[in-house]
Recover the amino acids of this structure.
């Protein structure tokens, strides 16, 4: 095989791995959109907040340390303990559940029956709030997250592929980040767990009923508010996983919240209401934007990743307005 | 007591459909315009112009534009920042390519150019609806910003990648550049705001505005009663982009003077303008102004209060700003989802019968 061909394959593999991470974020969107029709812009900030909380708990940082120091002139920053990763993750999950309950009690309850755009704006307000709150609570410096996931290139894969190139060509094997591999494995198992949960458990069935038809679900005795708390908790958990992966990759900082924007074209491509759509869309976008950057980037100035996904999704939607797997849009007067 | 329609007899249709049917409202409107025209320019200084008046006026134009698209025609757009960038770069290219062209014409032409770009990006709206469209407009936002950042022709191959507005004057008054006085900048923007708000008000109650509202309320039904969705949607995109482009041109040439595109016209701009429209009130001209005033004044007021009055460290104050803005947005949406304009209307209803209960 020629080296160019192998490079292309390498780009595709890395693109697919990145796509898995996009899918993780998109998954959180889809869950909430299906269950409540809310387009939750705060998903990215939730990932940031979850990752911040995880780091903070793990390292034993004092919450609101800056504020306390400013008010009382003290100089506290860390407790003198640190938590094992697993315990910190469990505590963070509990905090995300608490967050879901608060969101339902303080915001969603009051906005039932409002137009979708109003709810969308409310989640943007929530995103602003969480951003300020997260920074206030844990400080705005860049933090490194280490929960024991291996990182760096896989030597095994490099050695495995180095012999594929034709004789005499320069090729050093394919580079695949172990973190990406783990992220892919975790994402796949997460999707499996979610599918099993929604197909075979009682609350999963209730979830699907609500997604199908709010009023019908209400009339058979399913509590919408319980379902909303449930679904926000689940997407809080998904946000934690996404935040963990992205945080381990590039540090926990503000830019983490921008991954929400990366997930939007994935949603458009896959359809807002489809979990498999989020996965397939993520893979297409991930591979597509890396390939485009690889082939076209040098010709037109690079950094095409910023917009390629959106334009791809836009062109795609013109031909299929509901996305790949979205429900067919039927309109009546 | 003053605020009554009693005793005002309307003898023609024109009188019946006027914008301010109550005399008090009309005088209040004249009063605001006169204060803006005859009082503010004489007392304005650099701080007030740059912190309050110029951003307020320019954002008011942008939110008028977005309100036409989102509030009147029902097409949610997140590409406002990108379209403002088009206006800014169009005005820069025109200013540097034609040094003799009047600044007034430059700003208007930038609006026209933005209208073309906006129509182009509005084309998918004929197929895509709702949130899919909102996300699709993000394509415009990211693509345009990338284009202005990467293609040297747009910033005349300057080494920093920034664009800086040259000195241009209107009559004897310098409008752009560092030496322009705050009063002349202010009056220049005021003129545009006045003109554009007047046009917007009259467009939205005419035939074209009604066709927009029909599309907003239900596009299929509107099509059946004879509204052409192609013309209605694309005209909304064109006119909205015209407004946003003018706002972008003024934002760059008059207000900031020098911009770096990824800083000044990022996605945050799109959200801020959308906030203004929603907090102010969808489908309301007054709401565009109220929303712009709210979103411009709130950060200034908070900064003054927290940093200067309470003496908090700047970073903590910045975090609190986010918390307060986010919290207020949610609070407003819960209390009055139809925005400040609706609160204002309720107040007027109460005033009309005051001091009696009904």
């Amino acid at each position: 095989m020629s080296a160019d061909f192998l490079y292309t394959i390498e780009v595709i593999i890395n693109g697919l791995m990145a796509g898995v991470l996009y899918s993780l974020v998109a998954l959180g969107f889809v869950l909430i959109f299906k269950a409540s029709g809310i387009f939750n812009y705060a998903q990215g900030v939730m990932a940031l907040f979850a990752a911040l909380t995880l780091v903070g708990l793990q390292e034993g940082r004092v919450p609101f340390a800056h504020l306390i120091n400013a008010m009382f002139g003290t100089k506290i920053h860390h407790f003198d303990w640190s938590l094992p990763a697993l315990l910190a993750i469990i505590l963070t999950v509990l905090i995300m559940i608490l967050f879901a309950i608060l969101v339902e009690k303080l915001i969603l309850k009051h906005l039932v029956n409002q137009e979708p755009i109003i709810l969308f704006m409310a989640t943007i307000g929530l995103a602003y709030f969480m951003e300020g709150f997260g920074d206030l609570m844990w400080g705005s410096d860049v933090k490194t997250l280490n929960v024991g996931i291996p990182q760096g290139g896989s030597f095994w894969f490099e050695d495995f592929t180095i012999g594929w190139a034709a004789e005499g060509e320069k090729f050093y094997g394919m580079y695949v980040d172990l973190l990406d591999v783990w992220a892919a494995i975790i994402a796949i198992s997460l999707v499996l767990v979610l599918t099993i949960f929604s197909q075979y458990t009682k609350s999963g069935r209730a979830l699907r009923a609500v997604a199908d038809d709010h009023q019908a679900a209400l009339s058979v005795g399913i509590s919408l508010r319980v379902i909303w708390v449930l679904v926000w908790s689940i997407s809080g958990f998904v946000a934690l996983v996404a935040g963990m992966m992205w945080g381990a990759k590039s540090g926990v900082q503000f830019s983490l919240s921008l991954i929400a924007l990366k997930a939007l074209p994935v949603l458009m491509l896959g359809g807002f209401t489809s979990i498999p759509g989020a996965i397939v869309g993520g893979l297409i976008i991930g591979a597509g934007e890396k390939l485009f950057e690889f082939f076209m980037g040098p010709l037109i100035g690079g950094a095409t990743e910023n917009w390629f996904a959106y334009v791809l999704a836009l062109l795609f939607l013109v031909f299929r307005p509901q996305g790949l797997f979205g429900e067919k849009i039927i309109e009546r007067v | 007591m003053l605020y009554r329609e009693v005793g005002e007899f309307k003898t023609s249709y024109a009188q019946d459909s006027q914008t301010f049917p109550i005399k008090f409202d009309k005088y209040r409107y004249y009063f605001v315009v006169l204060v803006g025209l005859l009082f503010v320019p004489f007392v304005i200084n650099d701080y007030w112009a740059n912190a309050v008046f110029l951003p307020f006026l320019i954002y008011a134009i942008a939110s008028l534009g977005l309100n036409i698209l989102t509030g009147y025609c029902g097409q949610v757009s997140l590409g406002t920042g990108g379209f403002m960038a088009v206006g800014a770069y169009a005005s820069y290219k025109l200013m540097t390519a034609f040094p003799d062209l009047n600044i007034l014409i430059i700003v208007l032409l930038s609006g026209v150019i933005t209208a073309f770009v906006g129509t182009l990006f509005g084309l998918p709206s004929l197929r895509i609806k709702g949130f899919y469209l909102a996300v699709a407009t993000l394509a415009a936002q990211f693509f345009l910003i990338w284009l202005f950042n990467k293609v040297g022709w747009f910033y005349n191959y300057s080494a920093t990648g920034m664009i800086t507005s040259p000195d241009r004057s209107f009559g004897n008054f310098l409008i752009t550049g560092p030496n322009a006085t705050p009063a002349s900048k202010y009056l220049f923007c005021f003129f545009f705001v006045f003109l554009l708000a007047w046009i917007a008000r009259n467009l939205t109650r005419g035939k074209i505005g009604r066709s927009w509202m029909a599309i907003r309320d239900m596009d299929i039904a509107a099509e059946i009663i004879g509204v052409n969705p192609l013309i209605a949607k694309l005209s909304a995109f064109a006119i909205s982009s015209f407004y946003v482009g003018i706002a972008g041109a003024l934002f760059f040439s008059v207000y900031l003077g020098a911009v770096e595109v990824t800083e000044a016209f990022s996605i945050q701009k799109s959200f801020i303008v959308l906030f203004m429209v929603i907090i102010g009130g969808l489908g309301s001209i007054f709401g565009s102004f109220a929303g712009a005033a709210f979103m411009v004044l709130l950060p200034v007021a908070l900064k003054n209060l927290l940093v200067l009055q309470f003496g908090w460290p700047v970073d903590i104050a910045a975090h609190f700003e986010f918390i307060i803005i986010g919290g207020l947005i949610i609070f407003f949406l819960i209390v009055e989802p139809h925005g400040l304009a609706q609160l204002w209307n309720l107040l007027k209803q109460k005033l009309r019968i005051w001091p009696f209960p009904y």
